[in-house]
Design goal:
The protein has 178 residues and is an alpha+beta fold. The chain has helices at 41-60, 145-177; strands at residues 15-16, 22-27, 64-74, 82-93, 97-108, 116-127, 140-141. A 5-stranded antiparallel sheet has the order 2-4-5-6-3. A two-stranded parallel sheet has the order 1-7.
Protein backbone atom coordinates (compact mmCIF):
# COMPACT_ATOMS: atom_id res chain seq x y z
CA UNK A 1 0.00 0.00 0.00
CA UNK A 2 1.40 3.37 -0.96
CA UNK A 3 0.90 6.69 0.72
CA UNK A 4 0.79 8.69 -2.49
CA UNK A 5 -1.27 8.19 -5.62
CA UNK A 6 0.44 6.41 -8.48
CA UNK A 7 0.48 8.27 -11.78
CA UNK A 8 1.85 5.39 -13.87
CA UNK A 9 -1.69 4.14 -14.61
CA UNK A 10 -2.53 7.18 -16.69
CA UNK A 11 -0.88 9.52 -19.11
CA UNK A 12 -3.47 12.12 -18.14
CA UNK A 13 -2.38 14.87 -15.77
CA UNK A 14 -3.58 14.41 -12.21
CA UNK A 15 -6.43 16.42 -10.70
CA UNK A 16 -6.61 17.65 -7.14
CA UNK A 17 -9.37 16.35 -4.91
CA UNK A 18 -10.94 19.82 -4.66
CA UNK A 19 -11.33 20.11 -8.45
CA UNK A 20 -14.39 17.84 -8.49
CA UNK A 21 -15.66 17.90 -4.90
CA UNK A 22 -19.35 18.84 -4.77
CA UNK A 23 -22.38 19.21 -2.51
CA UNK A 24 -25.98 18.61 -3.56
CA UNK A 25 -28.80 19.81 -1.29
CA UNK A 26 -32.44 18.76 -1.27
CA UNK A 27 -35.45 19.42 1.00
CA UNK A 28 -37.22 16.17 1.87
CA UNK A 29 -40.98 16.10 1.20
CA UNK A 30 -43.86 13.82 2.12
CA UNK A 31 -43.69 12.00 -1.21
CA UNK A 32 -40.29 10.59 -0.19
CA UNK A 33 -41.38 8.81 2.98
CA UNK A 34 -41.52 5.13 3.80
CA UNK A 35 -44.08 3.25 5.91
CA UNK A 36 -42.42 4.55 9.10
CA UNK A 37 -42.90 8.20 8.16
CA UNK A 38 -39.21 8.87 7.60
CA UNK A 39 -37.45 9.39 4.29
CA UNK A 40 -37.02 6.15 2.37
CA UNK A 41 -33.44 4.85 2.33
CA UNK A 42 -33.65 4.46 -1.45
CA UNK A 43 -34.19 8.22 -1.79
CA UNK A 44 -31.00 8.86 0.18
CA UNK A 45 -29.17 6.26 -1.93
CA UNK A 46 -30.28 7.99 -5.13
CA UNK A 47 -29.07 11.35 -3.82
CA UNK A 48 -25.73 9.71 -2.95
CA UNK A 49 -25.51 8.22 -6.45
CA UNK A 50 -26.41 11.58 -8.05
CA UNK A 51 -23.73 13.46 -6.11
CA UNK A 52 -21.13 10.76 -6.73
CA UNK A 53 -22.01 10.72 -10.43
CA UNK A 54 -21.48 14.47 -10.66
CA UNK A 55 -18.08 14.13 -9.00
CA UNK A 56 -17.09 11.19 -11.23
CA UNK A 57 -18.08 13.09 -14.38
CA UNK A 58 -16.21 16.19 -13.26
CA UNK A 59 -13.09 14.27 -12.33
CA UNK A 60 -13.02 12.10 -15.44
CA UNK A 61 -14.03 14.89 -17.80
CA UNK A 62 -16.96 12.98 -19.28
CA UNK A 63 -19.48 10.22 -18.77
CA UNK A 64 -19.08 7.80 -15.88
CA UNK A 65 -21.41 5.06 -14.69
CA UNK A 66 -22.00 3.48 -11.29
CA UNK A 67 -20.13 0.18 -11.06
CA UNK A 68 -20.86 -0.56 -7.41
CA UNK A 69 -22.05 0.93 -4.15
CA UNK A 70 -20.78 -0.47 -0.91
CA UNK A 71 -20.83 0.37 2.74
CA UNK A 72 -23.98 2.49 2.53
CA UNK A 73 -24.51 3.23 6.20
CA UNK A 74 -27.59 4.93 7.62
CA UNK A 75 -26.78 6.50 10.97
CA UNK A 76 -29.91 8.53 11.74
CA UNK A 77 -33.37 8.75 10.18
CA UNK A 78 -34.10 11.64 7.80
CA UNK A 79 -37.46 13.34 8.27
CA UNK A 80 -39.82 15.29 6.08
CA UNK A 81 -38.70 18.92 6.19
CA UNK A 82 -35.03 18.08 6.57
CA UNK A 83 -32.61 19.88 4.30
CA UNK A 84 -30.23 17.12 3.19
CA UNK A 85 -26.70 17.93 2.03
CA UNK A 86 -24.85 15.23 0.13
CA UNK A 87 -21.11 15.89 0.02
CA UNK A 88 -18.99 13.85 -2.38
CA UNK A 89 -15.37 13.65 -3.49
CA UNK A 90 -12.99 11.34 -5.34
CA UNK A 91 -11.08 9.23 -2.81
CA UNK A 92 -9.06 7.04 -5.18
CA UNK A 93 -8.55 6.43 -8.89
CA UNK A 94 -7.49 3.40 -10.88
CA UNK A 95 -6.90 3.23 -14.61
CA UNK A 96 -10.58 3.62 -15.60
CA UNK A 97 -12.41 3.62 -12.27
CA UNK A 98 -12.80 5.92 -9.29
CA UNK A 99 -13.99 5.50 -5.72
CA UNK A 100 -16.24 8.35 -4.64
CA UNK A 101 -16.85 8.94 -0.94
CA UNK A 102 -20.22 10.38 0.07
CA UNK A 103 -21.23 11.95 3.37
CA UNK A 104 -24.92 12.73 3.98
CA UNK A 105 -25.90 15.48 6.43
CA UNK A 106 -29.38 16.64 7.46
CA UNK A 107 -30.68 19.73 9.21
CA UNK A 108 -34.16 21.10 9.83
CA UNK A 109 -35.04 23.49 7.03
CA UNK A 110 -36.41 26.11 9.43
CA UNK A 111 -33.88 25.92 12.28
CA UNK A 112 -30.34 27.17 12.62
CA UNK A 113 -28.98 24.09 14.35
CA UNK A 114 -25.90 22.24 13.10
CA UNK A 115 -26.40 19.55 10.49
CA UNK A 116 -26.27 15.92 11.68
CA UNK A 117 -24.24 13.22 9.92
CA UNK A 118 -26.98 10.78 8.83
CA UNK A 119 -25.20 8.49 6.39
CA UNK A 120 -22.12 7.58 4.37
CA UNK A 121 -21.39 5.54 1.28
CA UNK A 122 -18.61 4.54 -1.08
CA UNK A 123 -19.38 4.18 -4.77
CA UNK A 124 -17.17 2.99 -7.59
CA UNK A 125 -17.66 4.63 -10.98
CA UNK A 126 -16.21 3.62 -14.32
CA UNK A 127 -15.49 6.28 -16.92
CA UNK A 128 -16.85 5.37 -20.34
CA UNK A 129 -16.40 6.64 -23.88
CA UNK A 130 -19.11 7.28 -26.50
CA UNK A 131 -19.41 3.56 -27.26
CA UNK A 132 -19.73 2.60 -23.58
CA UNK A 133 -16.20 1.21 -23.29
CA UNK A 134 -13.95 2.05 -20.31
CA UNK A 135 -11.70 5.06 -20.75
CA UNK A 136 -8.76 6.32 -18.68
CA UNK A 137 -9.29 8.72 -15.78
CA UNK A 138 -6.85 11.27 -14.40
CA UNK A 139 -5.10 10.23 -11.19
CA UNK A 140 -6.47 11.96 -8.10
CA UNK A 141 -4.07 14.16 -6.17
CA UNK A 142 -4.99 14.25 -2.46
CA UNK A 143 -4.40 17.70 -1.00
CA UNK A 144 -4.90 17.35 2.74
CA UNK A 145 -4.07 14.79 5.42
CA UNK A 146 -7.75 13.82 5.40
CA UNK A 147 -7.62 13.32 1.60
CA UNK A 148 -4.51 11.15 1.98
CA UNK A 149 -6.22 9.07 4.69
CA UNK A 150 -9.25 8.62 2.46
CA UNK A 151 -6.98 7.56 -0.42
CA UNK A 152 -5.30 4.90 1.73
CA UNK A 153 -8.63 3.64 3.11
CA UNK A 154 -10.01 3.44 -0.46
CA UNK A 155 -7.05 1.25 -1.46
CA UNK A 156 -7.94 -1.12 1.39
CA UNK A 157 -11.60 -1.22 0.30
CA UNK A 158 -10.51 -1.93 -3.30
CA UNK A 159 -8.28 -4.79 -2.15
CA UNK A 160 -11.23 -6.26 -0.21
CA UNK A 161 -13.65 -5.83 -3.14
CA UNK A 162 -11.25 -7.65 -5.48
CA UNK A 163 -10.54 -10.43 -2.94
CA UNK A 164 -14.27 -10.93 -2.32
CA UNK A 165 -14.93 -11.10 -6.08
CA UNK A 166 -12.13 -13.69 -6.54
CA UNK A 167 -13.31 -15.79 -3.58
CA UNK A 168 -16.88 -15.90 -4.89
CA UNK A 169 -15.71 -16.72 -8.43
CA UNK A 170 -13.48 -19.52 -7.10
CA UNK A 171 -16.28 -20.91 -4.92
CA UNK A 172 -18.70 -20.96 -7.85
CA UNK A 173 -16.08 -22.59 -10.09
CA UNK A 174 -15.44 -25.33 -7.49
CA UNK A 175 -19.18 -26.06 -7.23
CA UNK A 176 -19.52 -26.34 -11.01
CA UNK A 177 -16.55 -28.75 -11.10
CA UNK A 178 -18.16 -31.09 -8.53
Amino acid sequence: MTDQPQTAHSELPGKQTSASRTTLSHIMTGSETNLYGTVHGGVIMKLADDAAGAVAGRHSGGPAVTASMDEMVFLEPVRVGDLVHVKAQVNWTGRTSMEIGVRVLAERWNESTPATHVGSAYLVFAAIDESGKPRPVPPVIPETEQDRRRYQEAQIRRTHRLARRRAIRDLRASRVAQ
